[in-house]
Amino acid sequence: MGDIYDKCPACGETYNPEPGFYFGALYVSYALGCAFLITILVALKILDVEVSLLQKCIGISIPWLLLTPKMHALSKIIWANFFMKYKKTDRSNDIK
Ligand SMILES: [Zn+2]
User: Fold this and answer.
1) d(CA 8, ligand 1 centre) in Å
2) Structure confidence at residue 73 as a pLDDT band (50, 70, 90)
3) Per-domain residue ranges for the chain?
4) What is the pLDDT of residues 33-64, one digit of tens each?
5) How many A from CA of 17 to the centre of ligand 1?
6) Phi and psi based region of residue 44 (left: phi greater than 0; alpha: psi -120 to 50; beta: remaining)
Protein backbone atom coordinates (compact mmCIF):
# COMPACT_ATOMS: atom_id res chain seq x y z
CA MET A 1 0.00 0.00 0.00
CA GLY A 2 1.32 3.38 -0.97
CA ASP A 3 3.86 1.99 -3.44
CA ILE A 4 4.33 4.11 -6.50
CA TYR A 5 5.74 3.69 -9.96
CA ASP A 6 9.32 4.84 -10.47
CA LYS A 7 8.35 6.85 -13.54
CA CYS A 8 5.18 8.14 -15.14
CA PRO A 9 4.17 5.70 -17.88
CA ALA A 10 2.95 8.59 -20.07
CA CYS A 11 5.69 11.21 -19.92
CA GLY A 12 8.52 9.40 -18.13
CA GLU A 13 8.81 11.90 -15.27
CA THR A 14 10.28 10.33 -12.16
CA TYR A 15 7.96 9.98 -9.18
CA ASN A 16 10.90 9.99 -6.76
CA PRO A 17 12.69 13.27 -7.48
CA GLU A 18 14.85 12.98 -4.35
CA PRO A 19 15.25 10.65 -1.35
CA GLY A 20 12.66 11.39 1.31
CA PHE A 21 10.46 13.36 -1.06
CA TYR A 22 7.30 11.80 0.34
CA PHE A 23 8.07 12.70 3.97
CA GLY A 24 6.22 15.92 3.18
CA ALA A 25 3.10 13.82 2.67
CA LEU A 26 3.00 13.53 6.46
CA TYR A 27 1.86 17.15 6.58
CA VAL A 28 -0.90 16.38 4.11
CA SER A 29 -1.89 13.32 6.12
CA TYR A 30 -2.03 15.46 9.26
CA ALA A 31 -4.27 17.98 7.50
CA LEU A 32 -6.54 15.18 6.24
CA GLY A 33 -6.77 13.80 9.77
CA CYS A 34 -7.69 17.21 11.15
CA ALA A 35 -10.30 17.67 8.43
CA PHE A 36 -11.74 14.23 9.24
CA LEU A 37 -11.88 15.01 12.96
CA ILE A 38 -13.42 18.44 12.48
CA THR A 39 -15.98 17.11 10.00
CA ILE A 40 -17.22 14.51 12.45
CA LEU A 41 -17.30 16.93 15.38
CA VAL A 42 -19.18 19.56 13.35
CA ALA A 43 -21.61 16.91 12.08
CA LEU A 44 -22.30 15.77 15.64
CA LYS A 45 -22.90 19.38 16.65
CA ILE A 46 -25.18 20.16 13.70
CA LEU A 47 -27.15 16.95 14.13
CA ASP A 48 -27.33 17.71 17.87
CA VAL A 49 -26.09 14.24 18.82
CA GLU A 50 -25.11 13.84 22.45
CA VAL A 51 -22.19 11.43 22.87
CA SER A 52 -19.55 11.07 25.56
CA LEU A 53 -15.90 11.90 25.00
CA LEU A 54 -15.05 8.19 24.98
CA GLN A 55 -17.68 7.53 22.30
CA LYS A 56 -16.30 10.38 20.24
CA CYS A 57 -12.76 9.03 20.56
CA ILE A 58 -13.81 5.53 19.55
CA GLY A 59 -16.15 6.75 16.83
CA ILE A 60 -13.39 8.83 15.27
CA SER A 61 -10.34 6.61 15.78
CA ILE A 62 -11.80 3.33 14.47
CA PRO A 63 -12.94 4.76 11.11
CA TRP A 64 -9.66 6.64 10.86
CA LEU A 65 -7.67 3.45 11.44
CA LEU A 66 -9.72 1.69 8.77
CA LEU A 67 -9.11 4.57 6.36
CA THR A 68 -5.37 4.83 7.12
CA PRO A 69 -4.15 2.90 4.05
CA LYS A 70 -6.34 4.99 1.74
CA MET A 71 -5.35 8.23 3.45
CA HIS A 72 -1.68 7.28 3.22
CA ALA A 73 -1.99 6.81 -0.54
CA LEU A 74 -4.15 9.93 -0.92
CA SER A 75 -1.70 12.10 1.02
CA LYS A 76 1.17 10.95 -1.24
CA ILE A 77 -0.92 11.72 -4.32
CA ILE A 78 -1.79 15.20 -3.03
CA TRP A 79 1.82 15.88 -2.04
CA ALA A 80 3.12 14.78 -5.43
CA ASN A 81 0.59 16.98 -7.21
CA PHE A 82 1.94 20.04 -5.40
CA PHE A 83 5.25 19.61 -7.23
CA MET A 84 4.62 17.53 -10.34
CA LYS A 85 2.69 18.72 -13.34
CA TYR A 86 1.30 16.65 -16.14
CA LYS A 87 3.36 17.03 -19.30
CA LYS A 88 1.60 16.01 -22.47
CA THR A 89 3.92 14.12 -24.80
CA ASP A 90 3.59 12.14 -27.99
CA ARG A 91 3.52 8.99 -25.84
CA SER A 92 0.45 10.30 -23.93
CA ASN A 93 -1.79 9.08 -26.73
CA ASP A 94 -0.42 5.52 -26.38
CA ILE A 95 -1.92 5.11 -22.91
CA LYS A 96 -5.56 4.99 -23.99
ZN1 LIG B 1 3.39 11.99 -16.71
Assistant:
1) 5
2) very high
3) 22-83
4) 999 999 999 999 999 999 999 999 999 999 99
5) 13
6) alpha
